[in-house]
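ENTRY TYPE: paired fold submission
RECORD: A
CONTENT: sequence, then structure tokens
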Amino acid sequence: MTTPKIGKLIIFSAPSGSGKSTIVGHLLQKNFNLEFSVSATSRAPRGAEVNGRDYYFLSADEFRAKIENQEFLEWEEVYADTYYGTLRSEVDRITQQGKNIVFDVDVVGGANIKKMYGNRALALFIQPPSIDELEQRLKNRGTDSPDKIAMRLAKASEELTWAPRFDVVLVNDDLDKAKQEAEKILTNFLSQS
């Protein structure tokens, strides 16, 4: 009897506006047997985001209760009362089916997941070409106020210092090129036993 194949973990982290969600979305449409890990958050939905598809939207109190119950693989209070985390049940559900799970998480969460899963996980850091370019992308996105953009840029400067903790740093200065490079990196990682 053969042992069922357990899926691998692919972690994408980056400052907000670096293009990681776009790259992850691209990879999910390719033949990598990937399923997206839906993170939990205590922030309000943005735009057309849907509960259970984009995030599991929880109140700050609900999130803290799940922390107390140790239901998270990793979690972070990114801003006051704004939590993000990965539910253990989500990772187990996907990998036990033999699927590879892909994460779109903050840098602290990404580094923590990598540390827990070691060689079973690949951690990619998507880096913007510059802070100026990042600011322009955030403005063009049109989802945040100028104050929120300033807060995201301050956070991005700190997040960029985490890049060396990741297996691969992918500079997204050309989105099509970054998507192709991400495909090559995944093909190589998933071909390893």
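RECORD: B
CONTENT: sequence, then structure tokens
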Amino acid sequence: MENPTYSTFETEHRVRPDDIDLFQHVHSSRYIDYVLAARYEQMEKFYGMAMEKFLERGFGWVVSSVQINYKRPLNLGDYFLVRTGIDSINERICRVAFTITNKATGKLCCDGWFDYVMIDIKTGRGAKIPEDVIAHYSV
């Protein structure tokens, strides 16, 4: 069976003063926050299935692993674009690929992926991703 092609979505943000580290550019940990914030917004805006819908069903998404490849820094006041899209999804893991690009220069700041697993909120343990969710997110 052929792997499906998934949509990519884009969210714009701006670097805030509290994102800046000792070296006067965005701290490496903030890039994780940027992707998580973009995904939260994109789940509702583009997929039509916000995080709250998962919580109502007793499910949550947690990050199990992250790969970030840093290319160049973002600085205070920079506007940037976070592009994300599902790379693959099955009953256990949803891999989301991302890029963060400086809006003014068009240059890539970093790229990588996040592996998300679904958990049962009551038990805190891993849960199978329901077929309807896999189908819904396969846009």
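NOTES ON RECORD B: The helical segments are 28-45, 51-56, 131-137. The mean pLDDT is 94.
STATUS: closed
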